[in-house]
Structure formats: structure tokens, C-alpha cells
Amino acid sequence: MIARLLAMAAMVLACLTATARADDLLIRNVRLIDLTAETPRWSAPQSVLVTSDRIAAIGPDITAPDDTKVIDGKGGYLLPGLTDMHVHVWDRAALGAYLAHGVTTVRNASGMPFHLDLAAKIDAGTLAGPRLLTTGPILNSHGANEQLNHQFVATEEEARAAVRWQHAAGFRHIKVYSNLTREAWAGIRAEAATLGMTVMGHTPEGVRASGVPVDHPFDMGFDQFLDADFVTIEHVESIVWHGLRNRHDSAAARALAQRIAASGTPVDPTLVAFRNLLHVAETKGAYLRRPGSEWMNPMLVATEQPVYDRWTNEAVEPNRAAFEFYKQMTKMMADAGVLMVAGSDAGIFTNIPGGSLIDELELLAEAGLSPAEALRMATLNPAQVLGEEDARGTVAQGMAADLVLTGADPLQGFATLRRPALVVAAGRLYDRAALDALLTEAAQQDLSRTQANVVAGLKAQGNDVSALTGG
């Protein structure tokens, strides 16, 4: 009994004389915004206390434990950390480029075993980077849209086996692609449901016959996937291709947007992905060498060279017209009430890690969405889509300590997000000097490490790696 009383007394004394842990942080004099409001407005200056990886308190005058690190926010604007819902990570070096642009969560859409290792190290705090969510390898069937890193399945049993392999490897999310056969899709959907795995990606089209889509419909119609529990359907241009049979018909597009909204299926438009293709054509390839391109993975750049050559010589006007329609379709989906998230497809073609999400926000505003709508797509909406709205997406007590501080109001221009004053990721502070150091490291990617990780991943899923190894 005496020992218990002594222990209780020690606990009380510890509370009365509390000192901060090394990772406790108090950010003073910052403005906050409630993005759940219909018309969000910035608050009067507040203080935000971070303890470990959570927001412990918010108020105008907080007294923090002794030894808490105190930051003067200088009247700046404190936002939830941004989420990029569609990236491709090829090497750990690029992770810092996301943090340097305020991106504190990424969803990798083409996973291999090394991504699970990276995610574990980030969670443990031994590797600087945004929280890394990842699908397994892309599931596809052979056909018009296939790539070396896809995991190929054709029959229902092959598909079920591939899903079981991904689950056993540690993946809990699946990405599907457009060539999938009816049988393969049926196997994926059934086995994913059995194992509790989520599905996102391109809507499968089945076997593409001659004359599809202009003269003949797709083997598998788009609308059937509006009742298929997709976490998100990716790419507005893919929706136009499959859902509208590539017709740029405003009335049909508006009707399709309403059907998507009625189904409750979320969409990730990734406008920046097609816009970058267009810019390469407009500049005859000069856009490939813009500032920030040094953060692109060198292995990816080498393998994309045929695509660079193609788009350098593509006709500008028809692609410019197509892009204008994609923006219109995005606005129609927003107006119809489709739940949309922001993704950049960073890490492929010339979509720069980190900065491409800011490009996406600017393009969403260019398409006619309000700045608040666009910002929700990178904060609140991803949390809702991922079932994490009770833990992420807002700056509030008890929420995850993923934060971005800017010197200017991002609702008046997203450019301020390109160089935030500081970023807090899982409670870990990165000031501007630390963020600049991460950008320097992002330009120093290890080609041999990348190749080793990718080759190991491809071998694990049974792919031929001779194109990468020269064998």
C-alpha cells in the first residue's frame, strides 16, 4: 500500500512540475482557418501546442510546459498538412521534396516491397518524409495500356492469387488499371473484399476491340464501376475517355458528373498530369528542363525518354482543346457534388515531386473552383475519403500534428505554399533551413539504389527485368 501511495505521489508531482519532451512545440501568433465552414475565414492570432504527434491545445494564450520549443508564427497562416493522393515514389531522396512543399501525406499508386520499408522508417522517425500510404503493384492485363512495372493477370484465379500475394507481402490497398479483363476484375474485386483490401485506380475497360471507343463501346462500361466501392477513380482524362467514349460533349459530361455524384464515388482529377504533357508540346521539350526537374528520378527519366520525344512533337491545338474540356469536366463534377481529392501523379513523366501538387491546386482554381474548394481537396477531402476525418484534415485539438505555416494567405494565391515558413509532420518540426536542405538532398538521388529496389520488386511479382538490367 505504501509503495502504491508513493507511486501516486510521484505521478502527481510529475504533473505539477511537468517539463516538455524534446519534440513538444508551441507555435504562437498564427491564424487558423476552419475549412469545414461554408465560407472559411481566418481567425484572430492563436497559439497551437503540439505534444508528440498530436495537437494538444489551441487558444489565444497557452502556457506550455518548461523547455517547450516556442516558435513565433509572426501572424502567419497555419494550415493542415497537404495530402497528395496520387504519387509515384522511386527513391527515398524525393520524399523531402514533398515535405518542402507542405505535403505531409502521400498515396503512392504503384507499390513495391521497398515502399513498405520506407513507410515503416518514416513512421518510426528514422527517415524524413511525408506519411507514406501505398497500393501494391498495379494490377493489369496485357493490352494497349501496359507498363513494365504492372503485375499482369488475365483469369479470375490469376487475379485472386495476385491479390493474395499482395496481402501477404503487407499491402492493404490495390490499384487497378484499364486493360483488366472481365474475369480478372471479378477475381480482384472478390478477393479484395474477402481480405478487406481497398481498390482505387483506372476503371477497367476489358479487351479493347478494333474501333473502340468511337465506333464501338467498351467491353466493360464505365458506369458499372460507380457501384464498385472504388476509394477513388483516377484522372479526369481517363473518365472522359471511358465514361464519355472520348467525346467532348458538354451535355453528356454534365449528365455523367451527376451520375458520379449520385453514386458517391470520389474522384482524383490530376489535371496537372495532362497539363504537363501539353506544356512539353507547347515548348518543344524545353519544359522538361524547368527548375525542379532535378528532383525527378534519373531511372524514370531514362525510361520515359520515348514519351518525352513523342510529346515534344505532339500537335498543340487539339491537346490544348482537350485540356480545356478536362477543366470543364472537373468543374462540372465539383458543381454536381462529386467528392474530389487533389493528386498530382508526381514522379512520372515530368510531374515534379511536391511542387506538382501546388500546380494542381492552381489548376483547380483555374478550372473555376474556389480557393477554399481546392484547398479542401488537399486537406479535408482526403481525410474523408481515407476514413480519417476524426484524426486528420483540420487544425483542431486531438488531431494529427501535420501542419504548414505560410507567410501569406494561401486563399489569395497558392504560390505561398511553394516555400512554406515551416512544416510539422507527425509532430516533427522542419523550419525553412531544414526544408531547403531536404530539397538539396532530393536532387541527389541514388540511381543504383533505385534500380536495385525496383528490380527486386519486379522479380518478387514475377516480372521480366531484362529491360532494366540489360540481361
Per-chain topology:
Blueprint: H1 2-16, E1 25-32, E2 46-51, E3 54-59, E4 69-80, E5 82-87, H2 95-99, E6 103-108, H3 113-124, E7 131-134, E8 139-140, E9 151-152, H4 156-169, E10 173-176, H5 182-195, E11 198-201, E12 230-234, H6 236-243, H7 250-263, E13 267-268, H8 271-282, H9 298-303, H10 305-312, H11 316-336, H12 355-366, H13 371-377, H14 380-385, E14 403-406, E15 422-425, E16 428-431, H15 432-442, H16 447-460, H17 466-469
Mean pLDDT: 93
Strand arrangement, largest sheet?
3-2-1-4-14-15-16
Cα-based radius of gyration, to the nearest Å: 23 Å
Q: Tell me how many strands there are.
A: 16
Distance between the termini: 73 Å
Q: Give start-end ranges of low-pLDDT stretches.
A: 1-21
Helix content: 25-40%
Give an account of the 3D structure:
- By secondary structure, this protein is an alpha/beta fold.
- It has a domain at 81-393: TIM Barrel.
- The protein contains 17 helices and 16 strands.
- The protein has helices spanning 2-16, 95-99, 113-124, 156-169, 182-195, 236-243, 250-263, 271-282, 298-303, 305-312, 316-336, 355-366, 371-377, 380-385, 432-442, 447-460, 466-469, and strands at 25-32, 46-51, 54-59, 69-80, 82-87, 103-108, 131-134, 139-140, 151-152, 173-176, 198-201, 230-234, 267-268, 403-406, 422-425, 428-431.
- The strands form four sheets. A seven-stranded mixed β-sheet has the order 3-2-1-4-14-15-16. It has a four-stranded parallel β-sheet with strand order 10-11-12-13.
- Helix 4 (156-169) packs parallel to helix 5 (182-195), helix 7 (250-263) packs across helix 11 and helix 12 crosses helix 13 (371-377).
- The longest helix has 21 residues, at 316-336.
- The radius of gyration is 23 Å and the shape is globular.
- Mean pLDDT is 93; it is low at 1-21.
